[in-house]
Design goal:
With 832 residues, this protein is an alpha+beta fold. It contains 23 helices and 13 strands. The protein has four domains: 1-31 and 317-362 and 816-823, Alpha-Beta Plaits (2-Layer Sandwich), CATH 3.30.70; 114-136 and 155-274, Alpha-Beta Plaits; 407-529, no CATH class; 538-678 and 707-815, no CATH class. Strands 1, 2, 9, 10 and 11 form a five-stranded antiparallel β-sheet that branches. Strands 4-7-3-8 form a four-stranded antiparallel β-sheet, sandwiched between helices. Strands 5-6 form a two-stranded antiparallel sheet. The protein is flat and about 125 Å long. The chain crosses the membrane at residues 394-422, 442-464, 543-564, 576-596, 644-663.
Length: 832
């Protein structure tokens, strides 16, 4: 990376920045950090872009409201010229004004239509009330004496009173859920002096005010006197009931109803034409909406970037500073030349000048969609210091492998792999789908990580011979049961000897172990063994120790790479050597003992094999006992050799603790001696007063503070490393612990759920297996795949961050964030 300075002509600056944005390999620095955002040069252009974005969001909302498709552009449109910005503003203003006018007219028409619809139902049902009263009043109507009940008498009274203009009435419509409270309030306020008739509208009615479709009820309230009329009107207003006029004359009611029907028919035609016009406008807008949004975002990004530039003294050019990869300087100059030609800037072209600086550059990694997810895992710990070794290429392999060690089940690995393959193969169609769902975004962003985790889980599942907690006998077991039926009938379990030949009391022998191990992974006979957990725990614990120490040693050798690259020769002798010697004297030696024990002790000597744990403790304590046999030595001269290793490991502690501070003291004295010679030369030129006593005292105090910080920092680093070697080695035992937990949970789900159905015979067993499969599969997915998978993921992440990367990785840098239109559009995606 290099720091560059750009000299841009004001007329060509826009086109040059546009070309650099398409290139996406330049990170600009803000040269006006103390200037308010509202006082910068191009703030008006940024505001205009924000206004255009607001109008485009409004258009997009209206298009989605009508459920119209929004078409993506076939190619990436270029940033428009500054003069085209005026045309875009005019187009957006016209569409915004036209659509708002259409919405306003449509809302007014729809409100009028809803009011007329309620009035139609009100007149229809009110006419029914009066018709009932008239039928009750008509003597010619054939009725029996018993049909003249109290309701008919009341209707007769109502009709007669209305005909003599002694009773008034109010009609309206109220939501059905408020009708009971409305009736109760009328009764209490009017003290029972009003009469209420009601009828429900059978269909949903759209409310003229809120626009919601509700169940409503038509009511008629009969009263006498102005005082009751005022009370009824206030109650109707309080319950937000819509009051409509209703003539007392039947003929007038019919004429009003006919007029309402005519107006409804006219409004239906007008509303249909308005909706058609709205659809045409929105359909035409939807074809260009995405293109417009991309153009406006690019214009805004260009002017926002130009606000970070500075003017020269004569204000004839813009000055910009940016970080860029050295390998891309030719492409940057070509983009500047292309931008100057596109703007017609004349003979003066833009100038690119490399600057010399002591400032730390940003860290830039060349990534693709496969490595991006793994780099995110590393950057979550800390962005690599500039030119520091990047752990990502190694994490790409070790992370899914450590996950698979804890998640080792071939069946579960197949399910994880199928899910990841679905996301990888369908990534184009799934990229913008459920983009607002945070959990889905996490899964989709790590689809390649999940794919490798699934593949490695299949591999470790084959090694463990574990498929949904069951073993597969593909190649045939290397063990044979050579006992008679009488022996098997007397004992619940029998012991299979690992020796090839087992002599019996009669002198004959029975071969139980063929002497040839199972070709791949664990022998399936262990699935039937009572001591399966004891055996697998021993093997997995040793493998966890081997994997952990190997990874920590690899991390130390990566630190050697950093020391060589940054030319820190003293760190190689004062940090790397004591660290690697200490790790080798104790922990690499432990790995050698593990392999030595595996290769030197077979089944016939298994009972005499020393314990590695007791052996390591005795090595630290210089205790060498021959009783019990588990404390015996492995080889001749072991005591002297291990004593030498412990003394060498102890020597590494003061070596690392004192080496670096002493080196700093020596280097400071050398610098001080050089400074004395320089001061003598200065004094010879009659400038003795350049450095007074106070300044010399400040420099001496500063060196003392720096050395005290060096001692404290080195002490902490030394304690952290030597104690961390022990704690980190023990931390890798989580590989064994989580593998055990995963295997046991899988076995519990099999035996307690699925085995219930599989153990039954006949049709009942088939039906039971069908019903128990659903809970078994659900628990497998939610507990073993999701919860156990998340647990293994987090533990693998911790092993890389703490145990592995702490050996060589500082992560004190800051990321390279280029000005790129592609990144800008990806970070702020347009929802489909």
């Amino acid at each position: 990376m290099t720091l560059c300075q750009l000299f841009l002509q004001p007329d060509a600056a826009y086109s040059c920045i546009s070309e650099l944005g398409e290139l996406g390999i330049v990170q600009f620095r803000d040269l006006n950090p103390n200037v308010n955002s509202f006082q910068r040069k191009y703030v008006n252009e940024v505001r205009r872009c924000e206004e255009m974005e607001r109008k485009l969001r409004f258009l997009e909302t209206e298009i989605k409201k009508d459920e119209l498709p929004i078409y993506d552009p076939e190619d990436n449109p270029d940033a428009p010229k500054p003069r085209e910005m005026i045309d875009l503003e005019a187009t957006f203003e016209k569409l915004d004004h036209e659509l708002k006018e259409i919405n306003t007219n449509a809302d007014a028409l729809l409100r009028n239509f809803n009011e007329l619809t309620e009035l139609k139902h009100n007149l229809t049902m009110t006419q029914g009330f009066f018709d009932d009263a008239e039928m009750a009043f008509t003597p010619a109507h054939n009725r029996n004496q018993r049909d003249s009940d109290d309701d008919q008498v009341q209707l007769l009274y109502e009709y007669s009173m209305i005909s003599h203009n002694k009773l008034g009435f109010i009609t309206g419509v109220v939501p059905r859920e408020r009708m009971v409270a409305f009736e109760r309030m009328l009764w209490r306020v009017c003290r029972g002096n009003v009469f209420l008739r009601q009828a429900e509208i059978p269909e949903l009615i759209e409310d003229p005010v809120s626009g919601e479709k509700l169940h409503k009820t038509v009511f008629v309230v009969f009263f006498q006197g102005e005082q009751l009329k005022n009370r009824v009107q206030k109650i109707c207003e309080g319950f937000r009931a819509n009051i409509y006029p209703c003539p007392e004359n039947p003929h007038e009611r019919r004429e009003l109803a006919m007029g309402v029907m005519t107006r409804l028919e006219d409004l239906t035609v007008v509303l249909s034409q308005t909706q058609d016009h709205r659809q045409r406008v929105l359909a035409a807008t939807s074809r260009n909406l995405r293109t417009w949004q991309i153009k406006v975002k690019k214009i805004k990004a260009i002017y926002h970037t130009m606000n970070m530039f500075n003017n020269d003294v004569a204000r004839k050019c813009l000055i910009a500073e940016c970080w860029a990869p050295v390998s891309e300087l030719d492409r940057i100059q070509l983009a500047l030349r292309k931008g100057s030609e596109a703007s017609g800037g004349g003979t003066v072209s833009s100038v690119l000048n490399r600057m010399v600086t002591r400032e730390q550059p940003p860290t830039h990694h060349k990534l693709n969609k496969f490595t991006q997810g793994f780099q995110n895992l590393v950057d979550a710990y800390g962005v690599a210091t500039y030119r520091e070794i990047n752990p990502m290429p190694f994490v790409l392999i070790t992370f899914p492998f450590l996950f698979a060690v804890m998640f080792g089940d071939a069946g579960h690995g197949i399910l994880v792999t199928i899910f990841a393959l679905w996301m990888v193969l369908k990534e184009r169609s799934l990229k913008d789908k459920w983009r607002n769902q945070e959990v889905w975004t996490i899964f989709f962003g790590g689809r390649y990580i999940i794919l490798l985790m699934g593949i490695f889980s299949i591999y470790t599942g084959i090694i463990y011979n574990d498929v949904f907690s069951k073993s597969l006998n593909i190649f045939g077991s290397s063990w044979r049961v050579r006992f008679g039926d009488d022996t098997l009938a007397k004992h619940d379990s029998v012991m299979l000897e690992p020796t090839p030949y087992n002599y019996t009391r009669s002198g004959d022998y029975r071969q139980m172990f063929s002497g040839t191990p199972y070709p791949i992974g664990l022998d399936p006979v262990w699935q039937l063994a009572d001591n399966k957990i004891t055996y697998t725990n021993s093997v997995k614990m040793k493998f966890a120790i081997i994997i952990g120490i190997t990874q920590m040693g690899f991390g130390l050798f990566l630190s050697l790479w950093n020391h060589l690259h940054f030319n820190h020769r003293h760190a190689i002798y004062l940090e790397f050597l004591p660290q690697i010697i200490f790790l080798a004297c104790i922990f690499f030696y432990l790995i050698i003992l593990i392999f030595y024990k595996w290769t030197s002790f077979d089944g016939s000597k298994a009972t005499d094999a020393p314990s590695l744990l007791i052996h390591l403790i005795n090595m630290i304590l210089f205790s060498y006992k021959t009783d019990p046999p588990s404390a015996a030595v492995f080889y001749t001269g072991q005591k002297q050799f291990q004593t030498f290793l412990i003394l060498l490991a102890v020597l590494c502690v003061p070596w690392m603790l004192l080496g670096k501070p002493i080196y700093r003291i020596v280097m400071n004295k050398r610098r001080a001696n050089r400074g004395v010679v320089l001061d003598a030369d200065v004094r010879d030129t009659d400038t003795e007063d350049m450095l007074d006593d106070e300044h010399s005292h400040q420099q001496h105090h500063q060196h003392e503070v720096e050395m005290s910080e060096v001692w404290v920092e080195q002490g902490i680093h030394t304690i952290e490393y030597f104690l961390g070697c022990i704690s980190h080695t023990a931390s890798y035992l989580r590989l064994w612990a989580l593998s055990l937990a995963h295997a046991q949970l899988s076995e519990v789900l099999w035996h307690m759920i699925l085995h219930l159905g599989l153990s039954m015979n006949g049709y009942g067993g088939a039906i039971a297996s069908f019903f128990v499969f659903m809970p078994w599969s659900s628990l497998t997915v939610f507990i073993l795949l999701l919860m156990e998978g998340l647990s293994a993921f987090l533990h693998a992440l911790r092993l890389h961050w703490v145990e592995f990367q702490s050996k060589f990785y500082k992560g004190e840098g800051y990321p390279f964030v280029p000005f790129s239109f592609r990144l800008l559009l990806d970070e702020a995606p347009v929802e489909a």
